[in-house]
Amino acid sequence: MNAHTxxxxxxxxxxxxxxxxxxxxxxxxxxxxxxxxxxxxxLNLFExxxxxxxxxxxxxxxxxxxxxxxxxxxxxxxxxxxxxxITFIIFGIVLVIMFMIKNSKGFKFFSLLLILGGSLGNLxxxxxxxxxxxxIDFHINEIHWFIFNVxxxxxxxxxxxxxxxxxxxxxxxxNEIN
Length: 178
Description:
The chain is of the alpha+beta class. The chain has 4 helices and 4 strands. The protein has one domain (about 5-175). It starts with a helix and ends with a helix.
């Protein structure tokens, strides 16, 4: 292989990496913006109407709560030192996810992008509002699920996809190797 061919190969690899980065950035930004716009819309809706609950259907309400804990309001506490500690842990998890994205491909890569986009949305809220606005109240009759937001949907779906990857795709690859 001569120097000219090696440069062309490096250029193609750089172009592929650049395209992958642009696609990844677009997915993460889209999730982040969907989350931001939904939260801004709901915050404005509640502020203008001075009510805290909108009934959309018999199984779906908009109910604004401020989550200072982690996923689905777990570990919610008023103490600021604990809140800051949780925020620091979440920031560390976001960095780990970014590292995992760098070292993954395929469906696992896409799943991690979903988690990262949602995580950045909620991390932004923790830093900006000092709490995460949750507002989607899904229920069947009087049985309510945790109140969540759009970022939580992407995070949850990404985690479900990762579990699928680990159970089915990685097991399949391990069986093929043995």
